[in-house]
Every structure is written in C-alpha cells, then in structure tokens.
C-alpha cells in the first residue's frame, strides 16, 4: 500500500516534469504554473495556519516582499536569467527575516486577534511599499525578460516552480511526522497543556511562522519574474492572503494533502468560472462555494471523505 | 470625497482652529464608526461569530438609502428607519439558513469567518450588478449646507450622520440595559451555560442579536455614506475600521465600542488634517497592530 502510494507520487511528478516537452499551448503552461504557485502558498501557510492553528491572514505580504526583493535585486545587480531565479532564494530569506521580526510580538496573541493583526500587517506592508519611491512607488517595477522564445522561457519557469512545489510539499510531509510537527500540533490542540508538558511553544511557533514565510517569498520572486512587471496592488492583494487561507482550509488544514487539493480545486474552479461566466456572476458562484463548503464540510474536504469511508 | 478639497496646511503652521475643527469632525466620524461597529462587536461577543459581511450589509443599507433618495426623494434618515426592519428580517433568514448550521462546528470562529467572507463576496457582486462599480455620493437636499459657529463649520450631512448614530447607539444601549430580551443577550454573552439553565433560548437570542446587529449595520452604513463616498468594494476598508474599533473597545462591550469609535474618529480626523492622505490608512493599521499586540482585549475591560 505504502509502496503503491510512493509509486503514484513518483509517476505524477514525472508526468508533471515532462509536460512542457510536449510543447503544450502557453496558456496551459501558465495555468499549471499558477496552480503550482497556489499549492506552494497554501502548503506553506499550512505550517502556521494548519498544523499550529494560528490563522495568518497576511501571507500575501511575504509573497509581495519576495516579489519586490527579487525585482529590485535583478535591476540593481543587472542579473542574468539564471541568477535572477537564484536571487529568489535571498528574497525568500528576506521574507523569512521579516516574519521573524513580526512574528516575535504577534505570535503572543491568539485566535481571531492573531488573524486580524496579520491582516493589518499585510496592509501596512502594502501601503509602505506604495509610499517608497525606491521600490517604484505606486507605479510598480519592470523586470527584463529572458532572451528566449516564449515557449522556452515559460517552460523554464514552469520547471523551477515545480521544483519549489516539490520541496515545499516534502517539507510539509516531513512536518506531519516529525517531532517539530508533533509540537506544532500540540500547540493547536491546547497551547497551555503543551507548554506545561515542556513543549517550547514560543520557539516552535516562531520557527513555523518563519518557515511558512520563506517559501511564499521565493514563490513571489518567481511570480515577479514570470510576469516581468509587478505592482503592489497585484502582489500584496488582500484577496491573495484570504485565498491562501481558504484553499488550505477548504482542502483540510493540518494535513499535507489538504492544501494541495484545496489549491488545485479552487484555482481550477476560479479559472473555469472566469472563462465561462460574467465576472460578477462568477464571483457570486465562488462566494456561494465557500458557504456550501463551510456548512457541509466544516473541517475540509479531506475530513469529509475520511468520515464517509469510515 | 468632499473632505479632500479642504486646504491642508503643513505641520509648521498648526493652528488651534484647525485642530479643534478636525477634533470635532473626528468625533462625528467616530460616532458613525461606533454605530457600524456595535453590532459587529455583539455578534462576535455573544455568538462567537466574526461576521465578515457585516460591513457589506452596512453598504447594502447605504445603497438602499441612495436609491430611495435618488428615485423617491426619501431622506436618508427615513431610509435608515425603513431599512432597519427590512435588514432585520433578512438577517433572521441568513441566521436560520447559514449561521445556525455552523454554530456546532469545531471552530465556530474560523468557520464563521470563511462562510461570511463568501457571503461578503456575494453581496459585493450583487451590489456591482445592481448599482454598478462607480463611486456614489449621497446628496440629500441639505448636502451643500453647513452650520457655521464662530470659526468652525459643520456640514449638515455630517451632523445628520452623527445624530443618526447617536440615536442608534443609545437605542442599542437601552435595549440591552432595560428590556428583558436585552438582558438575556447580556446573560448569553457573560455566562452562556448559566443563562441556558435559567431558561434563555440561546438560538433565539443569537438570532435576535445577529438580526439586530445587521440592522444597525444598515443604519451605520447610511451614516457613513453621508460622510464619505462609497462603492461596492468599500466594505473591505470599512471592515478594517470595524476590527479596529471593536478590538480597541473590547469585544461585546457596547460602551467600550462607542468610546473606541470616538477615539479612532479623533485619531483619523487629526491624521487627515496633518498627514499626507496616503499615510492616513497606514497610521490606522499601524495603530491597530500596536493595539492588538499590547492590549488585545481593549482599553475598557468593563462589561456591557
């Protein structure tokens, strides 16, 4: 059974990796790219939101910080495409450092208060970036495009995002069965009890928060390079923050599979709706989806099907 | 967006009139924030439901009043009185259909946030479909008039918004203090189990609280529409103010919410007078973050 599962995962990974070789239309590459991106965002949000139970509504901030850091580095140092892609790693580190600074005071507060403080944090970062001339202010930043044909450059970005997704998911999977992950789950279940049992709650929370900011930072950098133009309204959009939370909760927080399912379904539904329906109608159906899911599957899709099988 | 046309002197020629004027406009604005927030605070405190679409219902009230004014010439204050029962009934339906099923979920707060976020998206887009996405301004007959007292001026719409909010808040306060149902709401907030033992029907109380909250949101939305222009996605910004007011005032605390509304109105009023416009929201959000970190349970820890 276990072996079968590994085999399935390997097959899916290989299929995804060879997909660009088939020379699909750029639309499909772009679409899969954004699915990967949302899987990364939802899965890394899950470290703090799902396993630890601290709902961060400000993850777009880390995504945006990564995007702006990468764009700025590429412009200042005049980086080659390969170096720009590598520059997303320090950008992710920057996002993680910001998470460390913000997380220290913020992780002391709990429940909805934490959710609101992170939401506010995202707004503050957004407004601050808009007011900093150096970062393009309200006009945004342009990046140099790759000197390859479109098909080629899109395929490269696709593969890079795929690698990042696999790494994120591996970390997420490891988290589910490590001592660290067990500590986080204990915090979610009951923080006082965990503290009494000798779980270093303050340290674990910070570590989880920093880790969950690192991957969105990198993903933000890759996204910036993919679009070659970034604007604060796009990368710091509060809807991204909320969408990340919804994807993870929709699939089922605190499991490694949940965010994947949530991100894939919601991205596909969103794309399908915006293609086939009027924008407002699409949004209304989208909103109704959240209501239906919360009423009928309050603990996520995964939980819903597990219960059915029992 | 009337207020942007005002001259804004730099910090070096601060004068007493300007400070007082912005204090007074801040207090007026704050009272409206308070009316908009009081219901949000009650639903959160009594039902443990964070009603994300609260501000969207407020905006719906504002749009209803706008249409009544444009097509039938009905004054916004009358519309506030008309929309309150309408929203009350709507909210009862919303409670029965959507909120009640999730009150048994493992994590009510999270579930309610996601569900009402979906509801907010629906409401926002319905409003876009009906009223289009352009910004609107409420223009009652007295819109351009102002009361001038010495060096100060008070625009009539602001005064009306302030008065409406004052009446609304007082009504809620008296309802909670004096009526039997109001006392049951307070009991359900303070000691849900004990209240149930004494024969309080928690579902009924929750429904009343929720419906009352939504109808005050409608009145608050009308008040805010008298002060500012509004568009279908304005409720997102209003929501941030709701959180700010409720957290500073203490969840479930009516008097605290009113005081916090005034405080925040004054702070935004002053920062609008002395800071470039784009920094005003930065100040507000920064302030909220500081509050959440240092005083997450509000400035006023006393009961309702």
Fold topology:
The complex is a heterodimer of chains A (310) and B (304).
Chain A: H1 2-18, H2 26-51, H3 59-77, H4 81-106, H5 111-130, E1 141-142, H6 150-177, H7 179-189, H8 191-196, H9 201-227, E2 229-230, H10 232-235, H11 238-251, H12 257-276, H13 279-296, H14 301-309
Antiparallel strand pairs in A: 1-2
Chain B: H1 16-47, H2 54-72, H3 76-102, H4 108-131, E1 146-149, E2 152-155, H5 156-178, H6 180-190, H7 192-197, H8 202-227, H9 234-249, H10 254-274, H11 277-294
Helix pairs in contact in B: 1-5, 1-6, 1-8, 1-9, 1-10, 2-3, 2-4, 2-8, 2-9, 3-8, 5-6, 5-8, 6-8, 9-10, 9-11, 10-11
Written account of the structure:
The complex is a heterodimer of chains A (310) and B (304). Chain A is mainly α and 310 residues long. Chain A has a domain at 26-236. Chain A contains 14 helices and two strands; from the N terminus they run H-H-H-H-H-E-H-H-H-H-E-H-H-H-H-H. The longest helix of chain A has 28 residues, at 150-177. Chain A is globular, with a radius of gyration of 19 Å. The two termini of chain A are 18 Å apart. Chain B has 304 residues and is mostly helical. Chain B has eleven helices and two strands. Chain B has a two-stranded antiparallel sheet with strand order 1-2. The longest helix of chain B has 32 residues, at 16-47. Chain B is globular and about 60 Å long. Helix content of chain B is 73%, strand content 3%. The two termini of chain B are 35 Å apart. Residues 1-7 of chain B have low confidence and may be disordered. The interface between A and B is large, with 40 and 39 residues.
């Amino acid at each position: 059974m276990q072996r079968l599962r590994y085999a399935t995962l390997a097959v899916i990974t290989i299929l995804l990796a060879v997909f660009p070789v088939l020379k699909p239309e750029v639309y499909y590459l772009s679409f899969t790219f954004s699915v990967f991106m949302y899987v990364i965002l939802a899965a890394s949000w899950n470290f703090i939101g799902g396993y630890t139970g601290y709902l961060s509504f400000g993850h777009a901030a880390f995504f945006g910080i990564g995007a702006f850091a990468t764009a700025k580095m590429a412009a200042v140092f005049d980086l080659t495409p390969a170096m720009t892609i590598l520059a997303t790693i320090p950008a992710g580190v920057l996002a993680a450092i910001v998470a460390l600074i913000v997380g220290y005071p913020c992780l002391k507060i709990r429940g909805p208060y934490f959710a609101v403080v992170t939401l506010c944090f995202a707004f503050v970062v957004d407004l601050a970036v808009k007011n900093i001339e150096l970062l393009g202010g309200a006009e945004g930043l342009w990046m140099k495009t790759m000197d390859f044909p479109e098909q080629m450059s899109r395929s490269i970005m696709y593969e890079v995002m795929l690698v990042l997704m696999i790494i994120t998911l591996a970390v997420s999977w490891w988290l589910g069965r490590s001592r660290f992950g067990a500590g986080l789950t204990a915090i979610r279940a009951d923080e006082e009890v965990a503290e009494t049992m000798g779980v270093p709650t303050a340290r674990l929370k910070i570590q989880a928060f920093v880790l969950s900011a690192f991957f969105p930072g990198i993903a933000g950098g890759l996204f910036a390079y993919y679009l070659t133009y970034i604007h604060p309204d796009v990368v710091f959009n509060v809807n991204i923050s909320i969408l990340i939370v919804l994807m993870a909760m929709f699939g089922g927080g605190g499991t490694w599979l949940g965010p994947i399912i949530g991100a894939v379904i919601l991205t596909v539904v969103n794309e399908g709706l915006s293609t086939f329906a009027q924008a407002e109608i699409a949004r209304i159906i989208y909103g109704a989806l959240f209501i239906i899911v919360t009423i009928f599957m309050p603990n996520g899709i995964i939980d819903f099907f597990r219960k059915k099988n029992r | 967006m009337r207020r942007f046309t005002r001259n804004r002197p730099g910090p070096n020629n601060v004068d007493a009139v300007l400070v007082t004027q912005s204090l007074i406009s801040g207090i007026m604005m704050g009272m409206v924030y308070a009316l908009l927030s009081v219901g949000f605070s009650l639903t959160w405190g009594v039902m443990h439901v964070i009603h994300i679409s609260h501000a969207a219902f407020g905006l719906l009230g504002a749009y209803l009043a706008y249409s009544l004014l444009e097509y039938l010439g009905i004054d916004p204050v009358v519309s506030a009185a008309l929309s309150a029962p309408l929203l009350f009934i709507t909210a009862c339906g919303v409670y029965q259909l959507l909120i009640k099923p999730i009150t048994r979920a493992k994590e009510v707060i999270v579930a309610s946030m996601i569900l009402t976020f979906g509801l907010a998206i629906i409401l926002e887009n319905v409003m876009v479909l009906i009223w289009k996405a352009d910004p609107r301004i409420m223009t009652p007959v007295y819109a351009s008039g102002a009361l001038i007292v010495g060096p100060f001026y008070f625009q009539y719409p602001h005064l009306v918004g302030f008065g409406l909010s004052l009446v609304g808040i007082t009504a809620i306060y008296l309802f909670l203090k004096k009526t039997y149902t109001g006392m049951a709401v307070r009991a359900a907030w303070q000691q849900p189990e004990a209240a149930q033992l004494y024969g309080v029907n928690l579902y009924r109380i929750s429904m009343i609280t929720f419906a009352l909250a939504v109808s005050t949101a409608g009145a608050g939305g009308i008040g805010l529409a008298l002060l500012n222009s509004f568009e279908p996605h304005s409720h997102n910004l209003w929501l941030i103010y709701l959180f700010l007011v409720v957290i500073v005032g203490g969840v479930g605390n009516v008097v605290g919410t009113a005081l916090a509304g005034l405080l925040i109105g004054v702070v935004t009023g002053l920062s609008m007078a002395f800071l470039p416009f784009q920094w005003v929201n930065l100040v507000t959000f920064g302030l909220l973050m500081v509050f959440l970190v240092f005083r997450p349970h509000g400035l006023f820890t006393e009961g309702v």
